[in-house]
């Protein structure tokens, strides 16, 4: 099992969360909530209002999200869903645990107790330069105050 940190439309209550609980795509088990140890710019961009974490460490905010334990099948689905490696790249990042529900062996308990876990995160280095000038967010909600509602893939033209 691999750990994945999601910060956008795959979180609970967001438009693509349905994929995280679809066992036909693999297994994803909610472990807890966290935020990036380093600051990153989280922007909402493009005509479909997609959240992107720009891989520019030290800029932006500590980004909030959810930590999942996923099997190989779900990781492969997420790679495809996230357009990895073209649109997003899956990299390891350090995530500060804010709230932990994970159940597992001693390694799990130790990681949670230390307050920092390593997770795969889908961020991007392949973005138009003007995105750096967009507003930076510390957390994402499709129906947030920003007024930029996410457009589901099945609704795109």
Automatic annotation (TrEMBL):
Alphabetized UniProt keyword annotations: Lyase
GO cellular component, one term: cytosol
Sequence ranges assigned to domain Gamma-glutamylcyclotransferase AIG2-like in this UniProt record: 4-105
SUPFAM superfamilies linked to this entry: Gamma-glutamyl cyclotransferase-like
Active site as annotated: 82 (proton acceptor)
Coiled coil: none
GO biological process: modified amino acid catabolic process
E.C. numbers: 4.3.2.8
Catalytic activity: epsilon-(gamma-L-glutamyl)-L-lysine = 5-oxo-L-proline + L-lysine
GO molecular function: gamma-glutamylaminecyclotransferase activity
InterPro entries registered for this protein in UniProt: AIG2-like_dom, GGACT, GGCT-like, GGCT-like_sf
One of the Pfam families matching this protein, by short name: GGACT
Enzyme class: lyase
Superkingdom of origin: Eukaryota
Keyword Lyase assigned: yes
Family from the record: Belongs to the gamma-glutamylcyclotransferase family.
Functional summary from the UniProt entry: Catalyzes the formation of 5-oxo-L-proline from L-gamma-glutamyl-L-epsilon-lysine.
Record-given protein name: Gamma-glutamylaminecyclotransferase
Native source species: Buteo japonicus
């Amino acid at each position: 099992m691999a750990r994945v940190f999601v910060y956008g439309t795959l979180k609970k209550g967001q438009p693509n969360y349905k994929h995280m609980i679809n066992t036909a795509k693999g297994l994803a088990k909610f472990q807890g909530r966290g935020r990036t140890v380093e600051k990153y710019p989280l922007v909402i961009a493009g005509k479909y209002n997609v959240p992107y974490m720009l891989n520019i460490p030290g800029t932006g905010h500590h980004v909030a999200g959810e930590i999942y334990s996923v099997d190989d099948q779900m990781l492969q689905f997420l790679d495809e869903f996230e357009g990895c490696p073209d649109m997003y790249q899956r990299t390891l990042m350090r995530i500060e645990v804010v709230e932990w529900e994970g159940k597992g062996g001693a390694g799990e308990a130790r990681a949670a107790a230390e307050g920092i876990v390593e997770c795969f995160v889908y961020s991007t280095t392949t973005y138009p330069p003007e995105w750096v000038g967009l507003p930076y967010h510390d957390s994402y909600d499709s129906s947030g105050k920003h007024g930029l509602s996410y457009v589901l893939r099945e609704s795109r033209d």
